[in-house]
Amino acid sequence: MRLTLPLATLLVTALWSCHSGPHEGSSEAWYDADPVPAPAEETLADETGSTDAETADQDATGAVQEEVDMQERRSEKRAFLVSSFLDRGDELVDRANLAGALEAYSNALQIDPASQRARRSLRRVESMLGDDYAQAATAFEDEVSREVVRRAQARMSAEDASTAGDNALRAGDFDQAIADYRRAELILRWHPLIATDSLDEQLVAGKLARAVALKEEARLAADDQARLAAEEAKEARTREQEELRANQLQTLYSQANAAFLNEKYSKAEALCAQVMMLDAGNEAALELQEVAAAARHAKADELHRRNFREQWQRTFDDLGTMNVPQVDSIVFDDLKRWREVSKRQPKSFKELDPLAREDKAVVLKRLGETVFTPNFGGPDDEGSPLEEIAAYLQSLTGVNFLISTRVTEDLDEEETSVSLKLPERSVKNVLDIIAETSENLRWKIEDGIVKFVTSEEMLGGQVLRFYDVRDIIHPIPDFPGREINISPSGGLAEPDEDIEEREANVVTSDLLEGLIRNNISPESWELDEANNVQITETGALVVNQTSEVHEQIDQLLADLREATGIMVDVQARFLKVEDNFLEDIGIDFRGLGQPGLGSNASFNDFGDSSTQSELGDEIGQGTDLGAFYDDGLDGDVRTRVENLYDMSLGDNNVLTGSGGLSFQWTYLNDLQLQLVMRAVSKSERIELVTAPHILVFNTARSSMSVLNQVTYVQDFDVEIAQAASIGDPMVAVIQDGVVLDVRPVVSADRRFITIELRPTIATLKRPIREMVTTLGSQNSVTIQLPEVEIQRLRTSIPMPDGGTVLLGGWKVSEHSDQRSGVPLLSKIPILSALFERKGTYVSNRKLLILLKADIIIPAEHEPTEAQLGS
Fold it and tell me: Residue 596, Cα to own-chain centre: how many angstroms?
């Protein structure tokens, strides 16, 4: 290889130097840059010079022929050399001498740059060398070999870059094409001797310039296209917005029109306002808005008039309803509200799982309904194993039975053997007996399964819950009625009744806690320290226990609350019946003289008439005449007839003789006569019912009072100042009216009621009697002395629910028949009418006190599902 290399180099150099054309300058520049092939260059220059000299002497025709022959010989030599180098390279590749093959292929490509075989061979060597291909030229010691390899590599890289640029340019990837052309241009700039007719720096520069120009044209075209696309998009958006605006206006106007047709004028106005916000000059929307506003005003006026008529009618309906009293104790008027109220549940910290409670209830029901005769004795009467009992009960009830592992591991055979022979009873009762007779064996229901467990396994599983028990432990206050009486002046007032305060409504907090601890799973409170019960000051029962205990507490509280929701409707009736009659007829002869007609003469039975005022106010002291006759002589006849009763006829509080007929007749002649006739007849029947009605909480004392308060001057205090004294009045208050004071107690079976009753009816007699007295001085004062008629009853009676009881009564029968007349003359028929006065007064009065009581349980008066309409 080393012997043939100089000859091959000289041949390649000679052939290369024979080339003429535009690359001559580039060849000279390459040889100037590389001093190694200088001798071969001089030899080639001499041969070329001699050849040119010989050729110049020939004629034109011979010169041309010789030139053609020379070119043919050169082509043959070049083809031979290329073929030789390629064959040599293939041989070296077969020997795995890749470096030598690379040099041979490079020489072949140096001689014939257009050789495709040389290019394929170099590609093959490149792939075989891999990463070492780039540094393959440095492996040659000979400078010429290194240069040949470098040129071959550079030529291949430049061609690849140019080809890649062409491909990228055809693909429209101008940036990549420019990059590839610049890389090819850079290679050719640094290796100008590798340039060929198809590949040189100027050609690549032209491609680069064309690629740059095409890129710029593409950019401008893209900009134009983008601008056109943007303008089209803008126009499209504008059209779309206009269409959207038109559609929106059409939609809003259609909605406004629909709202107007549906008499939703406010909505129509709002929609028209939106239309005008989008299109301020929309005349149709403006017109519709004005029409809608006018229609809204008209509708509002009509609505106001209709509402006014409705409210006016409703007002008078309410006034009419007020005249219809409610007769039922409890009335659910607002069913809609009660439908919401009935859904309320008590607040709690944590609710138990409803599914678990339902499963447990189903299992307990099955255990309670299944009845059998237990006979667990075993073959030797030493007891049956617990496994056999569990299997038997499971097959009997259809409920799964399970024995915990701690029972089989911790309890011995004696503790797990059950010997039980009893008469027929339920499975639940048998399980309770097994648990009670065993020290460590227990049973419980968990996840719908009956489990036999140890006493230790019963611990844990607590649930913290809060119960509101204020309605049980807080007492219901009593409201007793006040006694009606007249307090004497300066005396001691009647003390108020000493009322014992109640400690609780049903049970006290301490008693409730004791009931829970002593009656609901008593042993569990001591076995597990986590189990606890406490009642706070606010009335909250806090319990930390298992769900089974919580269910029992729920049941206990429900039982206690059964008595708290009971009320008693008490109706007392004071029935007063009166039948009264009064008649008074009489004729008197009296009254002659002043101020009437007739003689002014008078009787002087008691002395001069001026002194008779000192005789007092007793009746029958009148001195006027009833008849007078003067015969003109020494004497005259004077007569007076006045029929009087020793006591007034009737009762000021019932019937009196006032009113009726008063007739006066005067006869004047020689005989003067004046007749006074009085005739009155009265009768009355009175039925007065006073019916206080009160709804009372069970066992609570309540009262109802309907009273009138009247002030009166009770007494006077003497106020002395210097030499004068004056009375300071002491004003007191007296009451009259009705007071009903009751305390009902409902029996346990809710059939009877024991009522402690204190009804009182007080009537103040009017007018109040007055008394005039002095205070030890010249000044007189008036003291009022009221009189009160009190009807009072104090009793305790049992009565049935809904029954009526006659508590008592008071009967008064008063008869008065009075006569007053002139003896003898009053006995003569017909004539007796002129000389007699007859008065009759009959009064029959009766007072009855009736009591009716009804037990009211609010739950029984709740509306039904049908009434609620749910």
Answer: 91
